[in-house]
Amino acid sequence: MKKIIDIAKDIGIPEEYIECYGKYKAKINHEYYENIKKNDNAKLILMTSINPTPFGEGKTTQSIGLSMAMNKLGLKTLTVLREPSLGPVFGIKGGAVGGGEAIVEPKEDIDLHFTGDFHAITSANNLLCAVIDNHLFQGNELNIDKNRIVIKRVIDMNDRALRNVTIGLGGNKNGVERNTGFEITAACELMAICDLALDLEDLKNRIDNILVAYDVNGRAIYAKELDCTNAMVALLKNVINPNLVQTKEETPCLIHLGPFANIAHGCNSLIATKMGLKMSDYVVTEAGFGADLGAEKFFDIKCRIGNLKPDMAVIVVTAKALKYNGGCNIDDLENKNLEALEKGIVNLQKHIENVKKFNVPIVVCINRYNTDTDEEIIYIKEFVKNMGVEAEVSTAYLEGSKGALELAKLVKKTLGNTSSKFNYIYKDSDNIKEKIEKVSKEIYGATNVEYLNDVKEKIMNLEKMGYKELPICIAKTPASLSDNPKLLGRPTDFTIHVRDIKVSSGAGFIVVYTGDILTMPGLGKHSKYEKF
Questions:
Q1: Which of 65, 234, 518, 521 yields a CA-CA distance of 20 to 30 A from 191?
Q2: Alpha-carbon distance 94 to 92, whole Å?
Q3: In the chain, count of helices (H) and strands (E)?
């Protein structure tokens, strides 16, 4: 690896804005953006995918491969990615720095503690929770209803035993007894806030506006009333500075923050994206899970809040994943099966239709395995060609930039021939139910939306509180276009079940819970920690 200070010099960042974390990692002071914000914007390329399967589609690997290949073609390109969470790293998913010859380095550092961003967010979030419980113990001047505290403690680990806990046990000296729980750090609102904040003042204002609880009369209570915002900002002052690393081929890469793609918007930080757009000619970024979650939220939340105008979307797909969606037995996925491919390709078809609704040019990246047959690859290419979309194979996992050169050429050609006319799926002025139903019906393909429990009443209350015009963030299973993870392919005639709704008032969006979504994952019987 090159020293990170040399990577910074390669892309023109003055040394005074670089803070090194050893030889191969650094933070870029967010104030550097003021120096470059008048530069022309790069072309913004979003990598997304079909619904994820247990085998992984290689979206991050292909993001890195495409970026390296574009640099090989002489196109000044930056990769901008999310940071890994320790939960998935030690769980079923594993790391998030690509694979094979298309990875970012130093791999182990990035997958584990990196520059401490997740730890700082965990500490700041838990400080706020500790302040709330201390307020209850010290007399509760704000008359907080202990049963209506909406913020939870977090830990950056998959730990199902912490989903529901009782705290304050052991008598009066140990705090007020109440029921609560933990979330994984990537799912907390503070992660989303740090991800969207552009400077320390913006960060402070967003933290002030976190709705933390309601009092006994139903009045909303915000973090600013607890006088701990400045302490939280002190813990987070370095978190909003993007992290600079490098790919295996020594091209620059920004990796910064990582909100979950169901409970939040599933993208890297807004400041890293904006900075990347001013330091290069092309930016390759990604959004979590399939296009129904990641791409929709990237377009409708991140681009809306950050005033971004994406120029293209690349949809990553594998023949194995399409055959899996077509009902092929897991043990037979490496064998040729055109019948299963034909049945399962409707999942890709729906995602292409969805991305077209945002009016951005589309390219399909076929992440090719050595077990894929020529007939399967030709079938995928012909299918998407009939939809007016071109596809190209990438073998970046095995060959690095060399394996993605044809994809890079197709991306360059498409950007040169077609311009983006980007638009959103819903308007700011739509009410909350209209936004939910537009995403559910137009993107997921649902026929109905059912509101369970007291969700309709909660929606009315949120609109009365002035949150009607916020974008929505639907928490849904990534495994299916529906809210039932067992419905593969392209399900039809199904209902989306909305079981809860809450406002992330500091982040600036409304979270809509569907199906059986959990904000604290668990470990599998056999997980990645066994292989360390």
A1: 65
A2: 6
A3: 20, 23
Rounded distance between C-alpha atoms, residue 436 and residue 267, angstroms: 20
Class of the CATH-defined domain 432-514: alpha beta
Architecture of domain 117-236: 2-Layer Sandwich (3.30)
Give dist(CA 310, CA 423) in Å, integer: 10
CATH 3.40.50.10490 fits 40-115+241-417, yes or no: no
Is-contact 13 5, C-beta < 8 A? no
Contact present, 153 and 180 (Cβ < 8 Å): yes
CA distance 344 to 339: 9
Beta sheet of 211-215, edge-to-edge order: 144-149, 211-215, 220-222
- Closest C-alpha among 210, 239, 237, 240 to residue 226: 210
- The residues spanned by each domain of the chain are 40-115+241-417, 117-236, 432-514
Strands 18-20 and 362-367, sheet pairing: unpaired
Q: Using CA of residue 56, residue 83, residue 314, residue 354, what is the dihedral sign?
A: positive
Half-sphere exposure of 491 (CA within 13 A, CB side): 22
Strand order from edge to edge, sheet including 448-451: 448-451, 495-504, 509-514, 472-475
Angle (nearest 5°) at CA 95 between 94 and 98:
125
Q: In a structure prediction context, what are the per-residue pLDDT tens digits for the chain, which is 532 residues long?
A: 999 999 999 999 999 999 999 999 999 999 999 999 999 999 999 999 999 998 888 999 999 999 999 999 999 999 999 999 988 888 877 778 999 999 999 999 999 999 999 999 999 999 999 999 999 999 999 999 999 999 999 999 999 999 999 999 988 789 999 999 999 999 999 999 999 999 999 999 999 999 999 999 999 999 999 999 999 999 999 999 999 999 999 999 999 999 988 788 899 999 999 999 999 999 999 998 999 999 999 999 999 999 999 999 999 999 999 999 999 999 899 999 999 999 999 999 999 999 999 999 999 999 999 999 999 999 999 999 999 999 999 999 999 999 999 999 999 999 999 999 999 999 999 999 999 999 999 999 999 999 999 999 999 999 999 999 999 999 999 999 999 999 999 999 999 999 999 999 999 999 999 988 888 888 888 888 888 8
Residue 416 in tokens: 């040169």
Burial class (CB in 10 A: 0-12, 13-18, 19+), 65: buried
Confirm whether pTM is higher than 0.90: yes
Domains 40-115+241-417 and 432-514 alike in fold: no
